[in-house]
Amino acid sequence: MTDRQHVKEIEQVLDGTQTGRDSFVSASWRRCVEIYGMDPARNEPAHIVTDAELRDHRKQAEWMIGAARSSLQSLFRQVAGQNYVLLLTDAKGVCVDFFGDDLFVNDLRGAGLYLGSNWSEELAGTCGVGACIVTQEPVTIHQDDHFGSAHVSLSCTAAPIFDSLGSLAAVLDISLLRSPTPKRSQNLAMSLVTNAARRVEMANLMAESRRDWVLRLSDSPEFLDVDPEAAVRLDGSGRVLGYTRGARRLFMEEGNILGRRIDEVLGLTIDDLPDLMRDRPTEDRIIELRDGGALFGHAIAPQAPRTALRSSRQGGPLAGLAGDDPAMEQVLARAAKLARTGVPLLISGETGTGKAKLARTMHMVGTASGFLSLDCAGLSPAALQQTCAGVNGPATLVLRRIEDLPEDTAGALAALLDSHASLRPLSTSCVAPGALGLPRPLFHRLVGATLSLPPLRQRQDMGALLDRMLRRRAPDDMRLSPSARAALLGRQWPGNLRELEQVLDVAIALCEGRVIDLPDLPAPVDAGDAPAVEESLEQVMEACGWNMSFAARRLGVNRSTILRRLRRAGLQSPV
Ligand SMILES: Nc1ncnc2c1ncn2[C@@H]1O[C@H](COP(=O)(O)OP(=O)(O)OP(=O)(O)O)[C@@H](O)[C@H]1O
């Protein structure tokens, strides 16, 4: 297109003729003439700020330049050899960081694709950065989409970067000096630049959230831990302190979520966050949305310790583990006092009573920043060492089902704890401390104090637990009929909280309307099979007629574990 044709098309657009341009281009042309008073025939070169002004702009944008650097570097590597240049501009359109091929520096500088160029729309006319600042959306301004004829050889694709309060902070632009004619040739550039902008927002949110919770969200479990789509920053009471643009889009219908509590927009509370930490399988970390959809969540605990809880009564994550139950209150008050010490702890209780959850929550209110969690069944010395190899600095080591620790790993674990004094072990076990059968040296490295969780059937806060679990799993207005509630309160719950969660999941799935009734409840599993946690191995064996398969099933372990435990305890069948 010649300059004359370009000017003519701009005039047609101003007269209201549709010429096939994207609407945001036509709108920008109109602003250029009607608001900034620009002449379509102009051929002005790029606007470059002075060195002193550039220093000022860079200084103001220092935090953003830092947050964006590694994303820009990786984006530049992806487009290496394809003549793309990357510009990071501040919210006013001044280029504060730049990645381009040294071979073309003079050409790039001449075209304004360089440090210090000012691409605000009121100076440069229609351009990628300028249109992005005005629309706050990603845009491609391709060749003669540009207003000024000086820029019509360029193709510029720009995406906005927002700070965690939702204000425009910067623009990331990827440009070509010369490009193929079809605009769609820049579709890949658009996807690269929007993804890079999302990662910069994420890096920025993470950097400013060291003392707060971050909840990262993704609709696919594969990307949850590596490249999530959205994130929110939460204070200790679950209020939203900041978010990425992805989260703003996600909660669009909720309006502004800043300052609101997360349970007002998602089916979870701050107390649920420990369940969404990385030690849980990704596919278990599901969060229900209010519109019936679901997302996967990854919660990252504050890295710096919060103020100590003097007692669980004062609120906070530990208090969220129970309602009004005297036994739980005692356990949690003790847990709150022990959480911030380095004392090794054993948490015992029947299967599903919430031992692992209590361990994670204690880590959260404790002082250690690192967090490791290992299942002891079948754990080899090599796997143990490999998991703990990268530890530097204070870390919590959760050892789940310590009673299943293979004999040959016991020595390695004792040695590891001796060589890593900053590792604090929190072990969980379904058998009473006295029946653990661990070698004495290891036992005393693991059990400085004990916490024993009551079985669900003995808890007096089951009503509150039921309501809380239902609120988290079902739509807001779903409730239990009085007879369904009474039936649940009367059950034995050999699988404890885990079983309760599963029964509710089944009931929610089977329920036709909004009221869960008796027929929706799955039948209780035979309470006679329930193992009593504090039962000794000998008692279990006797109850099972010394049949190892029965005993294995009753304790929820395999036969070889029973054999090993019998050997350790020096027990033999009386017949
Ligand atoms: N206080 C609680 N309130 C609500 N749900 C809970 C609570 N504690 C645990 N849960 C839920 O119950 C289930 C079992 O919890 P957890 O894995 O901590 O039990 P556990 O005692 O470690 O089990 P096991 O010994 O079988 O490994 C989990 O899904 C967890 O989210």
Describe the structure.
By secondary structure, this protein is α/β, with parallel strands linked by helices. The chain has five domains: 3-201, GAF domain (Beta-Lactamase, 2-Layer Sandwich), CATH 3.30.450.40; 209-300, no CATH class; 312-454, Rossmann fold; 457-529, Helicase, Ruva Protein, domain 3, CATH 1.10.8.60; 537-569. It is 37% helix and 15% strand. The chain has 21 helices and 17 strands. It has helices at residues 3-14, 23-34, 51-60, 62-78, 105-111, 121-124, 128-135, 187-207, 221-224, 245-250, 326-339, 355-365, 381-388, 407-419, 440-446, 462-473, 482-489, 496-510, 537-543, 548-555, 559-569; strands at 84-90, 95-99, 139-142, 155-162, 168-176, 213-218, 230-234, 240-243, 286-288, 294-300, 345-348, 370-375, 395-400, 423-429, 449-452, 479-480, 515-516. The strands form four sheets. It has a five-stranded antiparallel beta sheet with strand order 2-1-5-4-3, sandwiched between helices. Strands 8-7-6-10-9 form a five-stranded antiparallel beta sheet. Strand 13 (395-400), helix 14 (407-419) and strand 14 form a beta-alpha-beta unit. Helix 13 (381-388) packs parallel to helix 14 (407-419) and helix 16 (462-473) crosses helix 18. The protein is elongated and about 105 Å long. The termini are far apart. The protein binds adenosine-5'-triphosphate (ATP). Adenosine-5'-triphosphate (ATP) binds next to helix 12, helix 16 and helix 18.
